[in-house]
Design brief:
about 550 residues; alpha/beta; ABC transporter transmembrane region fold; Rossmann fold; 2 domains; six-stranded mixed beta sheet; four-stranded antiparallel beta sheet; 17 helices; 10 strands; about 65% helix; about 10% strand
Length: about 550
Amino acid sequence: MKHVATLIRFTWRYFTGCTAFGILLYCVAPLALGLATRAFFDRVAGETAGAVWVAVALVAAIQAGEVLSELAVGRTWSGFCYETHTLLQRNTLAGILRGFGRFGLRVPPGDAISRFRDEPPSITMGSMDGVADLVGRGLFALVGGAVMWRIDPVLTLAAFSPVVVSSAVSDALGTRSAVHGAAAQESTGRLTAFLGELVAANLAVRVAGAAPHGVRRLAEISDTRRRLSLRDRVFAETVNSMNFHLVHVGTGAVLLLGAGKIRSGSFSVGDFALFVVFLDQLTYLPAEIGRVLTELKRTRVSIDRLHALMPGESREAVVTAAPIHVRGPLPPVPPPPAADRLERLDVVGLTCIHGTSGRGVIDVSLSLRRGSFTVVTGRIGSGKTTLLHAVLGLLPSDGGEIRWNGTLVDDTGAFLVPPRAAFTPQVPRLFSETLRANLLLGRPADEEAVGAAVRAAVLEDDVAALDVGLDTIVGRRGVKLSGGQIQRAAAARMFLRDAELLVLDDLSSALDVATETELWRRLFARRGEVTCLVVSHSPIALANADQVVVLDDGRVANP
């Protein structure tokens, strides 16, 4: 309930509007309708024709008001949903980005997308929608109950007893319903994740002749999802049906007792009609109470599923208020940091240990002078990539410091960005956009700069061979390009940043000898202009290095 309250405070204007409409539709309108119906039947019994038509007009006006109110509430409700969904998705994505360097993505991408897409609507449409409606229905129960009590206490008790019983049953069964709902959601996530992996690995599956096995596994996961979803649905409908029909027991008791009281003259036809109208509205109260109790428990599960995507964050981070900019112009993009000429970069006693494996780099120190070319090498698993990530702030360090021109850098992840530093990772990622868009990543187009970056990455002949050059769609993750072309496209993207410090992680691993030689030659030609920190085993890179740092099990092996 605490997380729901936080979301309500964030969208209090929309929530207040939804609650006001809930009070109007589920409290004011039924009260007015019941009183008008009572007056109508009392006038009919008294044979006062003029008053009857007044009562008929009043009932018709109330019904028309309900229809118009239901149309108007849609606008408020859509705004409420949009802001809530946007906040939840914004916080989840921000948490993923903050923790990705250290924790990665703890679930398969397909499952993550499923949670990102499905959980925010589940939270809004379940508990928050129910709370707004329950306020109106609860207020009606209080006011309507008082009116009914003044007419006949015994009939009022008969009407409300099933409401109390069904609410208690719903609370008792709510935990079980939440468990079934969580299992159904998990099964949907597993299906989405496996389907995404199967599509992504279709070539490997076909080459291995494993397509029938993949289809069989997909069918097994789908069948599990079907069974769990059906169980969840049947259980939820059973609880709702029980809540709905328990109230009919009270309705039947009221009808039987009311008929006897009418015969005795202690209960008018109008009183009976009012009870019937009020009972119709009370029919929905137990189901609403049960729904809210159940959905609040399911909301905790949804919050946990979103929180699992952002390890290292508190559960409150999922619902923390933040600017979402859904109305008005978007804020201007912050300008890049000012150019800061690098004279010397010092890494002093840097330690970074992975929490899961216990491996990493320990007490690494090195210095990079302006224009120097430093190569980090070592066996597989010695910590080379971890060192680069820790220097750039992509992984949190457990000790040591980074100094830029002698000044301590407090937040390397925010400081070592273009134009101070640019990075080409070991496994570059491209978007399913044009090659030009992948190089620019939103920068204003500068044809001269793009051409220079392409030439620096030895990519000009490859671009010329593409169907429409830089405007060629490269496909998902650059599927239309070779591994070497993807690496050089990432290098061109790095060169476009015009950074003081270039950090390259095994750049030439997918290149043929001639292309690799030419790439290093062009990079060495820029010595004195940029400072390079490179992970490589290439003899060319090692032979031309100003200093070589050899890592062995996370420590510097050479003096």
